[in-house]
UniProtKB/TrEMBL annotation:
One of its GO terms (cellular component) is cytosol. It comes from the Bacteria. This is Aminotransferase class III-fold pyridoxal phosphate-dependent enzyme. The keyword Transferase applies. NCBIfam families: PRK06105.1 (NF004767), PRK07482.1 (NF005684). Keywords: Aminotransferase, Pyridoxal phosphate, Transferase. Its cofactor is pyridoxal 5'-phosphate. The lineage of its organism: Bacteria, Pseudomonadati, Pseudomonadota, Alphaproteobacteria, Sphingomonadales. It comes from Tsuneonella suprasediminis. Gene3D superfamilies: Aspartate Aminotransferase, domain 1, Type I PLP-dependent aspartate aminotransferase-like (Major domain). It holds the Pfam family Aminotran_3.
Amino acid sequence: ETTERAGSNRDLGLIDRKSMIHPFTPLRTFSDGETGGPVVVDRGSGAWIETADGRRLLDGFAGLYCVNIGYGRPEMAEAIAAQAGKLAYYHAYAGHTSEPAALLAERILEMAPANMRRVFFGLSGSDANDTQVKLVWFYNNILGRPTKKKIIARERGYHGATVMASSLTGMRFYHEGFDAPSGPVLHTTVPHHYWGAEPGMDEAGFVAKCVADLEALIAREGADTIAAFIGEPVLGTGGLIPPPAGYWPAIQAVLRRHDILLIADEVVCGFGRVGHNFGCDAYGIEPDLITVAKGLTSAYLPLSAAIVGERVWSVLEQSSDARGPFAHGYTYSAHPTCAAAGLANLDVIARENLIERVAEFAPQFQAAFQDAFAGHPHVGEVRGTGMLAAIEFVADRDSKRRFDLSEKIGARLSAAALEGGLITRSMPHGDILGFAPPLVIDTNDLDFMIEKTKSAIASVF
Ligand code: PLP
């Protein structure tokens, strides 16, 4: 149909449904208006957003766990406008740079673990993970190891949606229907004690099982065919799963023994979400490469980075020029305006001590979820760390019987919470409600989250 191009009374919802394809949204039923929506989000301030029809909602998931400093920061708008007015864009090819890009790369290295040496900028977590894979392949080509190329990821790990990143992602719906190439990717055990431990197995026993599974995979494939292991310090989209105690040091020891690089996907954990600069700092992880995005700009503009550590950098630096210039990059790599947003965001984080604040607030945040929900007859597990929390629902606590998928428990719970004015995320894997609010929420906001979640649960069960 035709829609007017101007005028104040145009139906934005109709325009959207007839014009746009949305991520993770049914195609025809949305387009036809059967599923309702779109939800037109109009403005935001602190931890709250407002829809075009005037509903105020507490954003308990910070967008897609990315708006860490909260919405509506004037200092962000000012920094972005100032850079856009001065030099919105220039590319970074052939040695070009801009002041914000160079300063942001330096800042990232200052915050990162001591062995990190260089930063390659992209725009999304997915493209940064693609970069990491290309870097480890390039590294092994330079070292004359053309067969050492496979990447081990984990079941339920999430690494993005580009062709390579969705192959790394360990969730079947990212593969089914899309032919994401599985050839160079292997998946190993997800470190989730609740579901993965055998009856009576404690955390230490379960870590030993994860290690044995990894060893068996490496033995089956041959260490000389495996280039790298990629993992999120705390599993995010797969269910907000903190690692069991001792998991990372034990996994790392195996990787070292087999000369396998470690890529830490810090897209969610980086820049404060778990009360440290990086998730690596929380769990004693010593990665060779680190991926960051989301919290780097708090999503005011898109920006990601592949941070390259000494082990890989020293090889690239010494030997890659013989092959010509580094033949990887994007038009928008090191985009000056995005970099200015990154610098302004890290300034806010530093000025307001937001990372220390998460560390201080986390015990109260975690205890609130435990106290309110751990005893519920349909709650199998309440878990979390820093300002990440998840409630996993089961039909029967004792037998850990799951709800039938057709009951759509997670989706119904998050819809009920939304009715009450709270955004939570029904995680795509199982009946899990996820919480990852902006790092600036206060005690009143936390109380609101708990109360509205309680009401949602009471309305569904
Ligand atoms: N890696 C992790 C751990 C993520 O959580 C995400 C996004 O949620 C990505 C990568 C992909 O990032 P993007 O959606 O910016 O491509």
